[in-house]
Design a protein that fits this description.
Elements (H helix, E strand, L loop, with lengths): L2 H18 L12 H8 L3 H13 L3 E4 L3 E4 L28 H11 L19 H14 L15 H13 L9 E4 L1 H13 L5 E6 L3 H9 L3 E8 L3 E2 L1 H10 L4 E4 L13 H14 L3 E4 L24 E6 L11 E4 L4 H11 L5 H12 L3 H26 L5 E2 L7 E5 L10 H6 L5 E2 L12 E5 L6 H15 L7
Parallel strand pairs: 4-5, 4-7, 7-8, 8-9
Antiparallel strand pairs: 1-2, 3-10, 5-6, 9-10, 11-12, 12-14, 13-14
Protein name: PLP-dependent aminotransferase family protein
Family: In the C-terminal section; belongs to the class-I pyridoxal-phosphate-dependent aminotransferase family.
Keywords: Aminotransferase, DNA-binding, Pyridoxal phosphate, Transcription, Transcription regulation, Transferase
Length: about 475
Amino acid sequence: MNATSRKYETLALNLQALIEHNHFAAGYKLPSIRKLSEQWHYSIDTVQKALNLLEDRGYVQPVAKSGYYVQARSTPLANTCTQAPDSIALEPPVNLEVANQIANFLKSSTREGVAPLGVAFPAHELLPIATLRRSYATVNRTRPDLLTLGSHVEPNQPELVQQLQQRFELMGMKLKRDELVITDGCTEALGLALQTVARHNDVVAVESPGYYLLLQMIESLGLRALEIPSSPEHGMSLEALEIAVKQTRIAACIVCPTASNPMGSVMPDTHRKKLLDLAEKYDFPIVEDNVYADLYFERFRPRPLKAGKQGDRVLMCGSFSKSLSPALRIGYVAGGKYAAQVLSKKRILSGSTNPITQVAVAHYLEKGSFERHLRTLRQQFETQVRAMSSLVLKHFPPGTRISEPKGGFVLWVELPGDIDTAALFNRAIARKVAYMPGSVFSASGLYKNCIRLNCGHPVTDDTAVAIAKLGQLFLTQPNHLV
């Protein structure tokens, strides 16, 4: 063994020891190669070889144009969340009055200097912004005609529809061109789907806890939400759903079967089949929220509900907001037998989604780098979720429970005792830390002792400080152990 090899192996062992003793926790971004060179007094070449060795051993992973991150460990987490109701007793359908409250939470969460743990957006450095800019430049140069298109004539650009068809075919879905409608993000997609299948004062079954903007949407459309208890492991309780549809006619069931928000659950294949069978038996449509489906952590991609034999009654909604850029506002609805109605409403309500952006996204997808980007992104988000989990369990009150997400980049946290996280929100903002209170994920205000944390940003020392501040805030509440 020569002197050079001894140097980089010695450095690798030292860094490995720091990782194993949680000096660098899972998800942390290591100092830059230059910084490590200065700290440890080794050449840049030696540091790079040491990092390569740690990557081979599974301790770190590189992220293009960002640096090296400590790899998530495979050991299971303790204190997993049990917040989903043990009983399948159902509350009656409720009307919602949450829009103004949620708007205030979102506005406060995005203030300058506030740790970005509230709104669920990924860090910009993890997104392929430079490549997207090149796609925009190519389209602007080669397709000036896109600036002249009428806004209410044809919502879809054929290039993007073709790329979506090819992606969905790999997932076992052969969708016809006229089944797809391109939308302004997933929010509009969900809104169009709901307006197609439900009328004023209808009841729609929703996951509980469930996505707060979806609850806002239900409120704005004059619908009533029927909360179906969901678990962090398997998602919506199908036993509870069947009890509900026997007692109450529902206009639709809205479900996020892959990487649900806020729990990160993935519905097993057997449950997906049962849900489709229930929809067939009791004759209700399913609105499938597919927005996080590209960000699963498991080895194999879960099969969408839309790919089942009853897929014609599924309106699958999704977007590229979580994987490419939230600014794109490019989503879709695969409407099945409701496609013509979805298209009609899209034309009337908003017309065409930006054609230049549609073709730019199609150009990016055609280049073939999306799947490579997704593989890296999934690994990074899993690492960040695990790192955030470790910090929460370290700094939050004893008895705190957390979800163990199987996809996405949010973490659901259940605090012990009689803590009202909505009431404490402004005190957290004063400490420059944001979160989303658990009560906004329920139509009837459940989960007051819960929060959702955004894990879309690399975990750094600043993140650890922010989590420690939250932990101290919750620890000082007199009823946290009640």
